[in-house]
Amino acid sequence: MTEEIWGEIREILIGRVGKNNYVNWIEPLEFSELADGVARFLVPTQFMGTWVSQNFGDQILRALKGHGQSVSRIEFAVPAMGTKPSCKKVKEKVERSEPEESEVTVETKPATDALPGASLDQRFTFDSFVVGKPNELAHAAARRVAEGGSVTFNPLFLYGGVGLGKTHLMHAIAWELKTKSPGLRVVYLSAEQFMYRFVQALREKDMIGFKQLFRSVDVLMVDDIQFIAGKDATQEEFFHTFNALVDQNKQIILSADRAPTEIHGIEERIVSRMQSGLLVDLHPTNYELRLGILQQKVEQFSEQFRNLEIAEGVLEFLAHRISSNVRVLEGALMRLFAFGSLVGREITLELTQDCLADILRATDRKITVEEIQRKVSDHYNIRLSDLIGPKRVRTFARPRQVAMYLAKHMTTRSLPDIGRRFGGRDHTTVMHGVRRIEELKARDSQLAEDLELLRRALEG
To answer: What letter does residue 26 receive in the DSSP assignment?
Structure first.
């Protein structure tokens, strides 16, 4: 392979990785040689060799093969002192045979110029995000941050269970920011990736490069921040990175599966900084939101699976039965469309029950005490901490008894277990609360209506 051919391949890579990624990571590569199926490139630093190998190795390999080059793997090396062709190898090889279609991430999760060295999912935009009551505040906050300009919420902290849309919103923010401001430097990664790169920088004695990367960004987005819990050295570096960016008035966006105060193993000073911005809880989806998501997915799948009909009532059935996780819900619908397409049959309710028997068994509705507490606190417009806290004023005591009553009748938890989940109360307190609600609902029509509304919301 000649320098001229490598120049042509680099032109191809610009379109695949984006201009910013190309300038930062591909342009500095210097082609060394192609021998015995191995393409070797010189890189200025160990850090760059590591980064390019992990994040763009597949795409470079595909581009080389697509240009007719007989190459099975690529290697990155730092030039030895005073020489050009001989190299001191510093990075693991990118060894792959011709990739299977399923192994290639260019189509579904392309590397983009919005995220130096990271991946964005093209499906995760604001246009594809279905908004409902459980996530409307999170969506509004994400939209505000995506407008750019002066930093309003710093950090923006999104938290909630699996499959509720945290990652979708973070990707949507990144896409929107980069569309409006192409020169903006946005870095998105998981907490595990942050930790891995920190450890790698320590091992390779390249902490300067690590600090330069993460402290020179305009927007830092870290997903699943709970995974740094218990990792003292990583937390120390994250703390200093956080402070450096805030001091520069740069935007930070974090996500976790629970509120900062509920993440055990995180240093108090980091928890304090996480709470200094806007905390937004993504609540479990309700029936209407799940149905909206399914309807949107049907429109997308209809383009892929042409002439495939779905019977009336199927979407409603799925929205009711699969309620815990949007990803499972979307996967179930995809399986239905694939199966219906393969066998050439309309997607009926009977076919749905047969095809998804395993998913339906695994996702039978299991209501938790925590979900009940959340629903009740929302219904009565009180804080969750007050619902389970020690205060005995009527404003908090009655909703607390309602939550205990529902926990007793809608979960399999024992009374002592329920008591522990209400601030460590004794089981006799739970018994008293349950009996009190049973007595009141017979003569208090408003309370009876509240119980029915809450029951339907929890079951739906």
So the answer is: I
- For the beta sheet containing 156-159, the strands, ordered from the edge strand earlier in sequence to the opposite edge, are 186-190, 219-223, 251-256, 156-159, 278-281
Burial (CB count <10 Å: 0-12, 13-18, 19+), residue 208: exposed
Q: Which residue from 69, 273, 47, 58 is spatially nearest to 156, judged by alpha carbons?
A: 273
Q: Are 214 and 247 in contact (CB under 8 A)?
A: no
Alpha helices in 22-81 (DSSP H): 46-66
Strand partners, 157: 254, 279
Write out the H or E segment, with its range, that includes residue 299. helix 287-304
CB atoms within 10 A of CB 352: 25
CA–CA gap between residue 113 and residue 56 (Å, rounded): 12
Rg of the chain over Cα atoms, rounded to whole angstroms, equals 26
Whole-number Cα distances in Å, 369 to 285, 421, 460: 16, 8, 16
pLDDT digits (tens, 9 = 90+) for 24-81: 778 888 888 888 888 888 887 776 777 788 778 888 888 888 888 888 888 888 775 4
pLDDT in tens, 374-428: 999 999 999 988 898 888 888 889 999 999 999 888 787 888 889 999 988 988 9
Q: Which helix (H) or strand (E) holds 188?
A: strand 186-190
For residues 65 and 344, what is the distance between their CA atoms, to the nearest angstrom?
Answer: 37
CB-facing half-sphere around the CA of 353: CA atoms within 13 A: 5
pLDDT tens digits along 209-230: 888 888 888 899 999 999 888 8
- Residue 423 and residue 385 in contact, taking contact as beta carbons nearer than 8 Å: no
